[in-house]
Amino acid sequence: MPAKILVSACLMGHAVRYDGQSKPLVHPVIDRWRAEGRLVTICPEMSAGMPVPRPPAEIAARAVGKDVLAGNARVVEINGRDVTGDFVQAAENALSLAREAACRFALLIDGSPSCGSGFVYDGSFSGARHPGEGVTAALLAANGIEVYSDRQIDALIARIEELEGPQ
Q1: Is the pTM value of this prediction over 0.85?
Q2: pLDDT at position 166, please?
């Protein structure tokens, strides 16, 4: 059975980002994976009831997703509102869907306080970023789901071919 991939809805062209936009990932393999029924799409924030558009949010104080999950960091909106609970619920919803759909992999948008896997913003709302993962990416990885950013699609392709043979 082909490996299933949980994928950020914004990468699939859905206008679900905080600013009401999408960030479509254009790659020939996406159409093939869609046709093969591999892709399971979610916007973690929307699954937790967050609106679109919504104020930008960042993990505070240069922390990362695992810190939020451990209760040692917060996710805050630019206006100062604490949305930590929403982001934890979003991560739990994504993990639940990934388990239900038997996803072995996740392909997530980098930089997001939910989905970032290579970097997140530092909480200053200045555009500064640092290495680390968002809340959803951290929870998925902690539960054995291999997480790849949109910039790592070629690595994900190689990993799937390693497991299933050339596509």
Answers
A1: yes
A2: 81
Q: 3-state DSSP call for residue 97?
A: helix
Task: Give the whole-angstrom CA distance, residue 43 versus residue 58.
Answer: 16
- Is residue 103 a contact partner of residue 129, using CB atoms and an 8 Å limit? no
Alpha-carbon span 16 to 8, nearest angstrom: 10
Chain mean position to CA 166: 26
What's the confidence (pLDDT) of residue 1? 80
Alpha carbon distance 141, 116 (integer Å):
12
pLDDT < 50: residue spans in the chain: none
Secondary element (H or E) of residue 147: strand 146-149
The amino acid sitting at 123 is G
pLDDT computed for residue 23 by the predictor: 96
Is 54:81 a contact under the CB 8 Å cutoff? no
Tell me, what's the pLDDT at 110?
97
Closest CA to 103 of 66, 139, 137, 144: 144
Q: Could you tell me which of 139, 89, 91, 103 has the C-alpha nearest to residue 6?
A: 103
Q: What are phi and psi of 148, to 5 degrees?
A: -125, 145
The Cα–Cα gap between 97 and 119 comes to: 24
